[in-house]
Design goal:
The chain folds into two domains: about 270 residues, FAD/NAD(P)-binding domain (3-Layer(bba) Sandwich), CATH 3.50.50.60; about 150 residues, Beta Barrel (Elongation Factor Tu (Ef-tu), domain 3), CATH 2.40.30.260. Helices cover about 30% and strands about 15% of the residues. The strands form four sheets. A six-stranded antiparallel β-sheet has the order 10-11-12-13-9-14. It has a five-stranded parallel β-sheet with strand order 6-2-1-7-16, covered by helices on one side. Strands 3-5-4 form a three-stranded antiparallel β-sheet.
């Protein structure tokens, strides 16, 4: 096949971009280095494999992630469609069976008549033709170096961490109760309550535990929305109780009282045989994970199906090189997408892939590349990663702070107003721009 578009990377962004471009008539060649070369954290050769958790986040339109999901659904996102197909109980969140999800994306992309998937590592960015680089936070050293040379912006890195997963049969359910925060959604989470005494012992063990040392200590810049649990605990005694161990809205139905702290477990697969510790990203050594996490009530004999681990995430200083169309300013035939550009999160990556794929098709047709309205979550995200005003750039999740302010009170009403405005503006923009035309 003589491709119209070359895509580097078969993750969430690359898969979404390939699908959108192919649906609009482009012949796409998609490079994915797995299984020829593994990343060290991926476990399969499937496209769009979810590494850190099995949640595509909220479906509530009054949350930032939920609003982004609603936007992507209206835009015909392949990733969201496959997420719906692989959904498992997750309260208000779109939790998925990770293997079913990745298999669905792989089948859709590999089965598309205009997409050719090449299982080979891309060492350089092609200097001719239309290209999307969506190689992700685990971009190989060779490709990262070539991309840095191409952009002239260099690269930055931070360390991200994966939460451990335990086998359901190894959980002692006697002290555990099922609930979702404030009773919203189904009672889909397993909640492990801790007394002050239990929490104190857990905290002391956590902050004194042995950790893996990063290979580049000077480069350890943690993403604040995804801190390792031991780093949160190290900052303050109560820190985890305002974060992953927050007990608010999780009163124990057996006592009618709020525990001092709560560890939540989230279902990881459809068979409900695997459960992950929510927010427990960690860089503790494996033996320490077993010792310390078994201090949590209900996990005293937990069998770990997957340990937490640390891996290096690479991203570019995108505001200095990228337009909100996701084209490189100096080379508009090259587009970037996914976590490589500094959007943080599964659906944020897919959203960037959607826009890159659509704009690649428009560039190939000789049409003007699109920028979604700033009042939408997608539009706000791409403006954030392309605003040259930003001199100290760090990755960003979807959040309402990115949107133009609305002076609506109370706060809950303001969130609904943000959502109403975003979805109305997105519908009008889609119709006027032809964004959904195939």
């Amino acid at each position: 096949m003589n491709p119209d578009l070359t895509i580097l990377g078969g993750g969430l962004a690359g898969s979404e971009a390939a699908w959108q471009a192919a649906e609009r008539g482009l012949r796409v060649r998609l490079y994915e280095m797995r299984p020829e070369r593994s990343t060290g954290v991926h476990q399969t050769a499937d496209l769009a494999e979810l590494v850190c958790s099995g949640s595509l986040k909220s479906l509530l339109v009054t949350t930032a992630s939920g609003l982004l999901n609603h936007e992507l659904e209206s835009l015909g996102s392949l990733i969201l469609r496959c997420g719906r197909q692989a959904a498992i109980p997750g309260g208000q969140a779109l939790a998925v069976d990770r293997r079913e999800f990745a298999a669905a994306v792989t089948a859709a992309v590999e089965g598309h008549p205009r997409i050719q998937v090449v299982r080979q590592e891309a060492l350089t960015v092609p200097r001719e033709g239309l290209v999307i680089v969506a190689s992700g936070p685990l971009t190989s050293a060779a490709l990262a170096a070539d991309l840095a040379a191409l952009t002239g912006a260099g690269q930055m890195a931070f360390y991200d961490a994966i939460a451990p997963t335990v086998e359901y049969e190894s959980i002692d359910l006697e002290p555990v109760y099922r609930a979702s925060r404030y009773g919203r959604g189904g009672a889909d989470y397993l909640n492990c309550p801790l007394t002050l005494e239990q929490y104190t012992a857990f905290h002391e063990a956590l902050v004194s535990a042995e950790r893996h040392a990063p290979k580049c200590p000077e480069d350890t810049v943690y993403f604040e929305s995804c801190l390792p649990i031991e780093i949160i605990a190290e900052r303050s005694f109560k820190g985890p109780t305002y974060g992953p161990l927050k007990p608010v809205g999780l009163d124990d139905p057996r006592t009618g009282r709020r525990p001092y702290a709560v560890v939540q477990l989230r279902q990881e697969n459809r068979a409900a045989t695997l459960w992950s510790l929510v927010g427990f990203q960690t860089q503790l050594k494996r033996g320490e994970q077993e010792r310390i996490f078994r201090l949590i009530p209900g996990l005293e004999r937990a069998v770990f199906a997957r340990y937490g681990q640390v891996h290096r995430n690479t991203f570019l200083n995108s505001p200095q090189v990228l337009d909100p169309t996701l084209q490189l300013r100096a080379q508009p035939e090259v587009l970037l997408a996914g976590q490589l550009i500094g959007v943080e999160g599964y659906m944020e990556s897919a959203a960037a892939g959607w826009l890159a794929g659509v704009n690649a098709a428009r560039v190939q047709r000789g049409q003007e590349a699109l920028v979604p309205p700033a009042t939408t979550m997608l539009g706000a995200l791409v403006r954030y990663v392309s605003d040259p005003w930003c001199k100290s750039f760090q990755p960003m999740n979807a959040n309402f702070g990115l949107l133009p302010h609305l002076d609506v009170k109370p706060k809950d009403a303001r969130k609904q107003a943000y959502a109403d405005r975003a979805l109305a503006d997105l519908a009008a923009w889609s119709a006027a721009s032809g964004a959904l035309e195939l």
